[in-house]
Amino acid sequence: MAEKKKSGKKSKELELAAEFPNLYKTAGKAEISAAMDFAEDYKAFLDISKTEREFVKNSIEAARELGFVDIEHKKTLKAGDKVYKSVKGKGLALAVIGVEPCENGFNILGAHVDSPRLDLKPNPLYEDNETVYFKTHYYGGIKKYQWTTIPLALHGVVYTAGGNEVEVCVGEDPSDPVFYITDLLIHLGNEQMGKKASEVVTGEDLNLVIGGIPVDDKDVKDPYKAAVLKILNDKYGIVEKDFVSAELEVVPADKARDVGFDRAYIAAYGHDDKVCAYPALMSLFSQEKPKRTCVTILTDKEEIGSYANSGAQSAIYENFLMELLAKNSGGIDKFNMLVFRKAMENTKMLSTDVTSAYDPKYASVYEARNTAYMSRGLKIEKYTGARGKSGSSEANGDFVAKITEILKENSIPWQTGELGKIDVGGGGTISAYMAKSGMDVLDMGIPVWSMHAPIEVISKIDLYYLYLAYKAFIENMR
Ligand code: MN
Ligand code: MN
Fold first, then answer.
1. Which of 158, 268, 341, 393 is at a distance of 20 to 30 A from 216, taking alpha carbons?
2. How many CB atoms lie within 10 A of CB 114?
3. Which of 66-75, 309-318, 388-397 has the lowest mean pLDDT?
4. How far is the CA of 251 from the centre of ligand 2 (A)?
5. Average pLDDT over the chain, rounded to whole?
6. How much distance in Å is there from the Cα of 356 to the middle of ligand 2?
7. Domain residue spans in the chain?
8. Which of 271, 248, 302, 314 lies closest to 114, judged by CA?
9. CA 272 – ligand 2 centroid, Å
């Protein structure tokens, strides 16, 4: 007995039992330092990539620097070639061609780059009591009251009737103004405080303060609104009707910040799901000539059902895989549908999305043995869904075992569990849409505190091991 203790070996009984330790406790100094460095790069990328459009644009820019080219420009593809396809500027698919032919299947990482936010309504601008507002319509699942009394920024594009594409980004530069949604003062909030949290602030209350100085003209009907329209026209060349063809998103104006004296965590807008999209992108960028063709897919519209031609249900992502296979087989005239379908059956994918982190304050919604804990690493989520696994794309057990084997071989710790207690609620990811084609898909991401809040929190050590896991998966899965 004493000898075993000396060697630090666990007893047979302990070796059999599963352990999910805190990784800040078990990691060496070098790993923690590498995690801190990786987090710096992530924060810098996140600060300039708050919307799906910005994430896609910055990803393409980074990819081009590494030699990726638009797949349109390639007639054939050979091992080591790097290509990408923009999906309407809001989604992205990238690949590094492997040594094995694409007909053997792909290794795919799939994340989403849209995050909950407030979108402008198609006719958003109005004046009320000498103040000018934008009407918004929230996008994705939010607690509406969380979006009041915080500095907000406006990001997006306006397509004018004249055919111009105008980019807008206001509220990020320290010299920029920000926008704001008011809340009722506590002194008069007695009745409001008695309301259900879902009714404290309604969808129609999420009106953004955008101006308060009128034009100097007594004949103008809405002088305050007219003044804002003039500013918008001077700066962007847009008129009020152009809002109908605008895609303008309201997001928190804050930058990503470290949390804690020890800087263990990061607070930022949009960790869901950019905290998975970023390592999915970086692990692909680390490939030069992989065994199997490696693909990273960054989709849009996940938060509202993965519809639209930029969402995961769009054929464009599948078209990209078809094009990879065709061009790797000698050209698009060599394409064979059955060969493609079989390649899909042999394709392996990680649906890379975040999960909830256990929060002791809200312990009652979690099942403590089956939940993810902050800083205990990535979570293997065999199934998602709600109340009886409804809507879940459950991964096959043999596929899960292959992945845990790869993680073991690469000394990457992991944890597992469900989102929360069975009857409390649930959620889904893009895995179900991808699995339709016959590929094996498993959900793997890291835990987040306050998911879908304007500012969410993740652990740096989780992010780092997630990157290592994605890299190990695309390099070793077959
Ligand atoms: Mn997500
Ligand atoms: Mn989400």
1. 158
2. 28
3. 388-397
4. 15
5. 95
6. 10
7. 9-115+269-476, 117-252
8. 302
9. 5
